[in-house]
Please model this.
Amino acid sequence: HVSTMAPAPPVALRICQGQLCCLENSAALLRDIEELAGSRAKVEPTTCLSRCGQGPNVEVVSSAGTSRVVTGVKTFDKMKDLVQQSTDKPEIKGRPLQIARLKY
Model:
């Protein structure tokens, strides 16, 4: 029996939705990272990552289960670099990158 389900992305990006990160527009960051990452990563909201005042913050969880928190994801370039460096997929370019830059 062959599964038709797509394999889970090897990386999870968890965007803090705690009170201070929400004040830094983490809800929009969640949406923007989801759109930019596509199938590169599992993108989901999470509770406070205990880096209050440094946000918005993103936890990067590898397929091996190790995690790190990236703080201050406030610019398009930092968001793009986070997505590209956290996945093993080719560089994001072309129309998806142009659309993401316009929306950010």
